[in-house]
Amino acid sequence: MEKHYNLEFLNDYYGDDREAMVEILRLYLQETPKDLNNIKTALHTNNAAAAKAATHKIKTNVAMLGMHDPVEFMHEMHLHSAQADVSEKVKKLFVDFEAAILEGLAVIKRDFFSES
């Protein structure tokens, strides 16, 4: 499986404290799927303001985990008006964004939390 993350920021921040870094990764693995679900719900209920807020919240997680591939969705949400209807383009970009984030989380889970 290809790496879909880069933990350089967390390594710099935590240094030799691997236990602390692993705990942060555990939190990201728990919280990021919830954040994705909040974005998805907001998009499908045509609530652009909530989608923008949830996207802004997940942006930190994505940056901390070094997931740079799915930036187009975040950029589009940043530019999207909170009062406008959610465009089909944004909804389609979210599908790729969600898949990339979930793939990255799966690789982190395998690399840091597998039993083998």
Write the layout of secondary structure elements.
Elements: H1 8-14, H2 18-44, H3 48-64, H4 71-79, H5 88-113
Helix pairs in contact: 2-3, 2-5, 4-5
Most strands sheet:
none
Query: What fraction of residues sit in β-strands?
Result: under 5%
Rg, Cα atoms, Å: 15 Å
Classify the secondary structure makeup into a structural class: mainly alpha
Overall average residue pLDDT:
91
Helical region count?
5
Distance between the termini: 16 Å
N-to-C SSE series?
A: HHHHH
Residue stretches low in confidence (pLDDT < 50, at least 5 long) are: none
Please tally the β strands and state the result: 0
The overall number of domains is 1
Tell me which oligomeric state these chains represent. Answer: single chain
In short:
Helix content is 74%, strand content 0%.
Describe this structure in words.
The mean pLDDT is 91. The protein has one domain (8-113). The longest helix is centred in the first third of the chain and has 27 residues, at 18-44. It starts with 7 loop residues before the first helix and ends with a helix. It is mainly α and 116 residues long. It is elongated. It has 5 helices and no strands.
Q: Could you name the key traits of this structure?
A:
single chain; mainly alpha; 74% helix
